[in-house]
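Saturday, quiet lab. Running sequence design on the structure tokens for the scaffold JK sent over.
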């Protein structure tokens, strides 16, 4: 069970980044960036998220153990 909890935590850590990769960014920009203030706010957020991205590990080791719990 402990290994599964670690896996769920690892998924949660990278979830936002995976979602970003699944977006059609051109469509997203067209829908959400209409005014200059929208662009400025998003560039500031991009800088902050870039610093956060640098903190992400390059790889995540996931270990699963198979357990046989035969009760017979």
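Result came back. Writing it out in full:
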């Amino acid at each position: 069970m402990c290994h599964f909890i670690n896996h769920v935590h690892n998924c949660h850590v990278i979830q936002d980044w995976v979602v970003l990769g699944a977006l059609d960014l051109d469509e997203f920009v067209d829908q959400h960036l209409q005014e200059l203030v929208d662009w400025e706010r998003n560039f500031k957020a991009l800088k902050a998220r870039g610093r956060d991205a640098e903190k992400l590990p390059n790889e995540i080791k996931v270990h699963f153990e198979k357990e046989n719990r035969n009760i017979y």
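Notes for JK: The chain is about 65% helix and 0% strand. The radius of gyration is 19 Å. Ask whether to fix the surface positions before the next round.
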